[in-house]
Amino acid sequence: MKKFKNVLITGGAGFIGSNLCLKLIEMGYSITVLDILSHQIHGNDPINDSPLYRSIKDKVAFIKGSVTNRNDLELAIKGQDAIIHLAAETGTGQSMYAIESYCSVNIGGTALMLDILANSTHSIKKIVVASSRAIYGEGKYYCPEFGFVYPLTRTNEFLSKGDFEVKYKGCNEPLKLVATDEESKIHPTSVYGITKQNQEQLIMTVCPTIGIEPVAFRYQNVYGPGQSLTNPYTGILSIFSTRIKNGNPINVFEDGLESRDFVYIDDVVHATILGLEKDEANGEVFNVATGVPTNVTTVAETLKKKYNANIPISISGNYRLGDIRHNFADITKINEKLDFVPQWSFDAGISKFVEWVNAQEVMEDKYDSSIQEMKQKGLFK
Which of 51, 105, 265, 345 is the most exposed place for a label (fewest CB within 10 A)? Predict the structure, then answer.
């Protein structure tokens, strides 16, 4: 096990980043944060109004800046022993039309960081990068005729008829969903997924050539206290919660049976620290998840019950082009190599999340405007 003294966290004022900062500080680390304080996450007056930023204010060395700015990055890297690279534009739907921004920040920012490290004197010994389950696209399935298969993006031809299940060419029997392991095919279905794939590949390819140990974590759907309640482009639990707190109905897409692997923030923080500290993580990529799929109708009904809310839930048949149907992770590798075992069940995590939301002021619900934006781009049906 290796402990670094000075750690830079890019995007450290975000949801995962701020929680990670607080835990690492508690463990004795000295933390520097580079974060642009995006208004989509932190609001229009982040210095005063962002609870995420306020949670780390005066506890870290904070640099307001961008990973796309060479001077900002050089300043942030100076004197650091390790980097946890979280800074990124997030959200699959938005990525399909904010293409230049996603590529510039996610790919360009990572490339710039590595360019600086490859061409200057520094003390960085390890980089942990936040990858994503989005790089897999659709999850792993079993076809009785072909064995394990990896279906391509669902097409409008079937979705428009209300046929939401994935298909695999030549397989005439229904596919069986299985857990997606790290050796599964990488074939992202969104610009966001492509950028996360590129981030991971850049880190895992370049770092060993310049004497830096790389680690990549493919996070599944992360949730918990502190998640932005104002960002309508990412985090289904936050989106549904803000709808409920405003007394607005919930629109569940497709037939409500699409599923995700929801992993609680404390488990994500714990896994990330294991990757930072353990030599066994060096050069490896890991899924970070619970290994349990939960469908979206269950999410909506659970939230409605825990908020004791009387709002309608509509299973509308609407869909977004590029959305995946299912994905849940195989966590055998991270368990065996890093001794990671998720501690939070979905029900326990949701209860803690709801308790936190109930203590927050009710945020403006921007969901409808985000849907209108996607409709105008032809992505929402």
Answer: 345
Q: Is 45 helix (H, G, I), strand (E, B) or coil?
A: coil
362 phi, psi to nearest 5 deg: -70, 125
Give the pLDDT confidence of 259-306 residue by residue, as tens digits.
999 999 999 999 999 999 999 999 999 999 999 999 999 999 999 999
Among 169, 185, 192, which residue's Cα sits nearest to residue 98?
192
pLDDT of 190-228, one tens digit each? 999 999 999 999 999 999 999 999 999 999 999 999 898
Residues 365 and 317: beta-carbon distance below 8 Å: no
219 is written with which tokens? Answer: 């996070």
CB atoms within 10 A of CB 368: 12
**What's the pTM value of the predicted model, to 2 decimals?**
0.95
User: How is residue 234 annotated by DSSP?
Assistant: S
CATH number of 6-376: 3.40.50.720
Short-list 112, 75, 89, CA closest to 11? 89
> Which pLDDT value is given to residue 43?
77
Spatial separation of the C-alpha atoms in residues 28 and 5, rounded to whole Å = 8
**Contact yes or no for 77/32 (Cβ under 8 A):** no
